[in-house]
Amino acid sequence: MRPAIRSTFDIISWLEARSAQAEVNLSAASLMKLLYLGQALYASDNKVAKLMPATFLATDVGPIVPDVFLAMEYGVTITDPVEPAPAVEEVLIAVWDSYASLSGTELDAILGADMAVKAAKERGRNSEILVEDMASAYPGGIEALHGQSLVSKFPDGSPYKMEHSNLDAVPSSSQEIRFTADGRSVTKWVPKKKVRSKDLKGSKG
Fold first, then answer.
1. Contact (CB, 8 A) for 62 and 170
2. What predicted TM-score, i.e. pTM, was given to this entire model?
3. Is 111 within 8 Å of 128 (Cβ atoms)?
4. Per-residue burial over 50-70, b = 16 or more CB atoms within 10 Å of its CB, e = otherwise
């Protein structure tokens, strides 16, 4: 089944634009968590279809698409993003309204209770989080978000408390986390680069 939008960077551009409008500073780590939640909620609402062509791995610091995470850290952007279709934007608005104001600790706590992430970790270090598991972890999709506080409950329905054991493994803000697809740390990177949509189109086929 084809993803709902051309590129993960189209979704990132939408989130960054909303962040600028709201004067909210989102780190690369927080953006990655919002991307994951968008993918999961869209899959729940759309018969396990992907929101974007991204594969999330279950790491010790949460769901990560390593290539995209590193690109965000080093300033890779696209200059002319595709506007999301109404069904896609509906999910993005729900994700933004429900999660963007949460702290990193609160997002980590919610994702720490995510059954799809847990299932992937049981398969081994940096294992892929299956889209079908993501959909199952958020039953009801975006409709389940309306009229409730996501900080008061975990995805499985259990109550949220700041002393929840899932917080024990949250990394400190001073930690710098960089991964390749196989879990190795990265020490070098190419200079910042702008990616144009026509370059993406030219690479098709």
1. no
2. 0.73
3. no
4. bbbebbbbbbebbbbbbebbb
d(Cα 181, Cα 127) in Å, to the nearest integer? 10
Q: How far apart are alpha carbons 104 and 20 in whole angstroms?
A: 18
Q: What is the 3-state secondary structure (H, E, C) of the chain?
A: CCCCCCCHHHHHHHHHHHHHHHCCCCCHHHHHHHHHHHHHHHHHHCCCCCCCCCCCEEECCEEECHHHHHHHHCCCEECCCCCCCHHHHHHHHHHHHHHCCCCHHHHHHHHHCCHHHHHHHHCCCCEECCHHHHHHHCCCHHHHHCCCCCCCECCCCCECCCCCHHHHHCCCCCCCCCCCCCCCCCCCCCCCCEECHHHHHHCCC
pLDDT at 151: 42
Residues 182 and 188 sit within 8 Å (Cβ to Cβ): no
pLDDT digits (tens, 9 = 90+) for 156-182: 555 444 343 333 333 444 444 445 444
